[in-house]
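Deliverable D5.2: sample structural annotation.
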Amino acid sequence: MNMKVNKILAVKLLLSLVIIGGLTSCSKRSESKGGSRATGWKINDKKGGFQYASNFKKQATGPGLVLVEGGTYTMGKVQDDVMHDWNNTPNQQHVMSFYMDETEVTNVMYMEYLNWLKTVFPPDQDNYKNIYDGASPDTLVWRNRLGYNETMTENYLRHPAYAEYPVVGVNWIQATEFAKWRTDRVNENILEQQRYLKKDSKVTDMTADKVFSTDAYLASPSTAKGGE
């Protein structure tokens, strides 16, 4: 009987020690909360010392974009084909996370780009007469000797019925220039909302000599359009 009592007391004592040890470790963790793992000093102490901006916001997702998480994959053949022809060597590729449009670039999105170009670089001026035409899609891609698509040639880009359809007839250079324009306009809007740029300047100051450029702003914010 005494042996059973002793075992029960021993188990209770062991449990109490475990609980006390757990509380002690928790208290130590709470005491070290906010302290440096390198020195033990307080971080962001009002009296001074090392100040670290830990309350930062994540990158904002641009309009119409979704995040695609990066990862690793094997590029190349990983087993023989029926002809036993190994024409490349498998190798590991790493892809960083990136943002991608939910859909293809639509006609209305590209029309907004063309409207901006026409406003900032008027085609009736000799200096800018080729900019708008150079950015316009080739609507003749609809023509086919095997079918009659003349209606699409004339209406597909600008007719409201096709506003949310993918834009076609855009070459590589035009697509690259559209992407650069879109980047600048999104950044311009964000900087205006954060009051780094003059309010409504993207609308009221739409002239060729006051065009906002992300690269120019990063190089010299004080001299960029609307910089304060």
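Annotation notes: Confidence is low (pLDDT under 50) at residues 7-32. The first strand starts at residue 65 and ends at 68.
The annotation will be released with the project's public dataset once the embargo ends.
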